[in-house]
Structures are given as structure tokens and as C-alpha cells.
Amino acid sequence: MKKNNSKIILFFTLVMTVFSLLGCGQEQKKVDQKNHPNLIVIMADDLGYVDVGFNGSEDIPTPNIDRIAQNGVKFTNGYTPYSVCSPSRAGFITGRYQQRFGYERNVQYRPKDPNMGIPPAEKTIAEILRQVGYTNGVVGKWHLGAHISKHPLKRGFDFFFGHLGGGHRYFPEELTIEDSYSISDEPLSYRTWIMRDHQPEKTEEYLTDAFSNEAVKFIEKNQNNPFFLYLAYNAPHGPLQATAKYLNRFDHIENQKRKTYAAMVSAVDDGVGRILDQLKVLGIEDNTIVFFLSDNGGPEPNNGSNNGPLREGKSSIYEGGNRVPFAMQWPAQIDPTVYEYPISSLDILPTIAALTHAPLAAEKPLDGVNIIPYIKGKKQGRPHQTLYIRKFDEDLYSVRDGDLKLVTKKKNTLKELYNLKEDLGEENDLSAVFPEEVKRLDSLRQDWDKQLIDPIFLGLKHTDRWKKRLK
Ligand code: CA
Predict the structure, then answer these.
(1) What does the pLDDT look like over 231-287, one tens digit per residue?
(2) What is the 106 CA–ligand 1 centroid distance (Å)?
(3) 53/60 Cα distance (integer angstroms)
(4) Predicted local distance difference test score (pLDDT) of residue 7
(5) Helices marked H in 104-193 — which ranges?
């Protein structure tokens, strides 16, 4: 009898323990959900400013990307901190102007060079979020250094499915180089197998579709813990390659380049739709922040993109260079709105860090800010009074202060001033009309410039292959 009693007591104790563990687990999950929203950053590559529906595209429908802007915030003045791929991404991933740590050029593909990439002293968004329990994944284009020490898994990420270089071929039969570390050349890097964490993997799908699949799987796998997914599509960056499935949607576009480009954008849009649907199905849409943006403006002649009213495009210091399609949603907290003041991809890290109270390194102050209070109207005024670009090799600068923008060229002997509110296309140089403003903005430029260092590595433009191409 006594033996049976103790068995019953043991049984009930076990049951109670299991229930209490389950209860605790649920409570814990609730707390985590509220204070630790999931974060998804979808970054397109070389996408034109008006090549999304929410910015007025007429020939390329992007109904899924538009859902983000419609459910959340459409940013009309969304910037990146540079106008080409790699430095723009270095700024986003650290929340700091990348010129502060010498990252001012497109990295060369150099698996043997540990200097080519973000210095170890700089913290990435993944390293910061890891401190508060996030699982972090990268799917797509890395382009922040090909040395093993720069690999996403060495920089705070728990999962990687993608390529290390600045672009990639899209058809699986063209990916013929198994080992990403066996080559040291950017164009060859476009042909490597895709890496799953550290392992090369032979893929069988159109690359954009393969990335969408992995993104959807990552979300499903991590639905019960806070996660950060950096989905960096290399589309619609060249080479221009699309499958019939997407090309067939664009019979109305005659120009072949534009048609293929449109098909590539459409493939990204399908992927975005699948991700948004997945969030809904899993019931985590409300507390997941989703950003969509391009890393820089469209290189119009190269990939058939369209920056609309903006002057120039990729690699420029005019608006076409780094004012990009930019939207976000966070249904639990943000009502649909259009936000007009300038914001930057530098703001994504400080925003999620503030929301999660993640510790930050005091000696590495951020250049971005938490934009949520501004969007919600709890903070008035501009998140950024001033935004800057420096292009060291070309000796070019731009300073946007309020709605005025100063562009300086040729060792600062040539200065142009524009009022972006009245002159979005930067056509009317006001430097002769407002010399005092030129002086004021130039002084801001000089103060900022003093905080920067010279580039710490040579760029793609310094490689022999690039120089030959230019000859
Ligand atoms: Ca790019």
C-alpha cells in the first residue's frame, strides 16, 4: 500500500512538474514575443527607385512588396549610407557610417585576405541581437568579405545559405566551382556553389527561388524563438537572368534588358509574398518587423532599372545613388502611414537594439537612431537633421541638411546646392544664390570628415580585371 502511494505521489509530482514547465514556457514565450519582435530585413540589390508599385512602377507590378508599404510605412526619403553594394551593407550591418572604420570600397573577392571586410572591433547587428537571445540567419548575398574570419557564422549569425561575393549567376547549371575558397576573383565567385553554413551545396533551382525557399524554412524553424533574418537577394543585380516562369509575365515590355530585369524583380516579389504568407500562417505576423529596401539605386544603363525623377543612379552622390525603395511593417505597433522625413538603413540596428534593450558598445557610437518613436509621432522633428556620403577615391561628398543638399567635387572646388523639397531631380544649382548656406553645409561636411579614416583596403576598382575592363 505504502509502495503504491509513493508511486501515485511520484506520478502526480511528475505531471505537475510537466504542467508547470509548460506553463512557464508559455509565459516566457509571451514575454519574449512582446519585447523581442522578430526582425526580417529584405534587401534587394540595385533595384531602381520607381521599380516597385508603391513608388509608382507602371510596368512591373510588385503586389507583395507593396503589401509591406500598405500594411506599414512607406518611406519617401529612405536612404542607404553609400551608393554601391558592399559599403552600403557594411553601414547597415553595423549601424555606423562605414567610413568610420575604413570600409569605403567594394571589397575584392579575396578568401586569403583577413583585412578585406569589417574589422573585428566593429559589432554587427547579429552580434548585438545574439546577446538578447535572437537566432540570426543570412540568406543570399554576403559581400562583406570572403575570408573565413568574415564569414557570417563568425560575425554573429547562426545560419547562412548564400554566396560570399558581390553577385551570382542565377541558373544552377552555371554554378560550377564547388569550393568558394579555391578562387580569388570576383567574376569567378559568381559561379561558386552556394554555401550552407560552411558547406558547399549543389543547388537545382533558379537562385532567387532557392533563396525564398530557405527564407521560408528559416522562419518556420525559428517561429518559437525571437529571430533575425537578413534576406539579401542578389536580384536584380547582374547578370540579367530569368526563367520563363517570370519572363512570361512581361510580354508588354519590348526592351529585352528591361524585360529580364522586370522578371527578376517579379521573382523577388513572389518570394516576399511567400515570406509574408508564412508569417501569417504561423501566427507571428503581428510581432514581426519586416523591412524592405534596396542596397543602392538602380544602375539604369546596366540592368535596365528606373530611378524615375531622381538624378543619376548607382555609385552616384546624387539622389539616384542612395535614395532607395524603402518600406517597413510591424502590425502590432505601427498603423499604416507615409513617412516623409529622411531615414537611413543605418537606423535598422539602433531601432531593434532599442526595442530589445540590447547592450551596445559605448566606444562605438551609432549613427542611426531608433525610428519607431518618430513614426508613431511620439517624437517630433527629424530623425536625422543631416546625412552624409563621402566617396574617397573620387573625392566626392554630399551633405543633406534638412531639405538642402550640398554636393562637392574636385577637391571641394566645385560646389552645388539643391533644395530637394522643390527640386527632387537636382536640376537647379542654388550655390550662387545662397553662398552662406553653401558655407554652412560645407562646414558640417568638414566636421564629419574629421571623424572618418582613410580606406583600409583596396577595392574592386583596383583589381587588374576591372582596370582592363575600363580600357
Ligand atoms: Ca547593389
Answers:
(1) 999 999 999 999 999 999 999 999 999 999 999 999 999 999 999 999 999 999 999
(2) 10
(3) 7
(4) 57
(5) 125-130, 186-189
Distance 296 CA to ligand 1 centre (A): 5
Show me where the domains of the chain are located: 38-384, 387-449
- Among the options 24, 36, 143, 151, which is catalytic? 143
pLDDT level of residue 9 (50, 70, 90 thresholds): low
Q: Respond yes or no: is residue 143 known to be catalytic.
A: yes
- The predicted-structure confidence for 421-454, as pLDDT tens digits, reads as follows 999 999 999 999 999 999 999 999 999 999 999 9
**Would strands 288-294 and 404-409 be described as parallel, antiparallel, or unpaired?**
unpaired
> How far is residue 92 from each of residues 111, 154, 319, 369, measured CA to CA in Å?
22, 17, 18, 12
**CB burial of residue 357 (10 Å; 0-12, 13-18, 19+):** exposed
Dist. CA 434 → ligand 1 center (Å):
34
State phi, psi for 413 to the nearest 5 degrees: -85, -25
Q: 321 CA distance to ligand 1 centroid (A)?
A: 10
Three-state SS for 22? helix
pLDDT at 31: 40
Question: For 387-449, CATH number?
Answer: 3.30.1120.10
The DSSP secondary-structure symbol of 209 reads H
Residues with CB under 5 A from ligand 1 (ion): 45-46, 85, 295-296
CATH fold of the domain at 38-384: Alkaline Phosphatase, subunit A (3.40.720)
Cis geometry, peptide bond prior to residue 236 (ω within 30 degrees of 0)? yes
What b/e string do you get for 163-196 counting C-beta neighbours within 10 Å, with b at 16 or more?
A: bbbbbbbbebeebeeeebbebeebbbbbebbbbe
Q: Decide: 141 and 233 in contact? Cβ < 8 Å.
A: yes
Summarize the confidence of residues 43-66 as an average pLDDT: 98
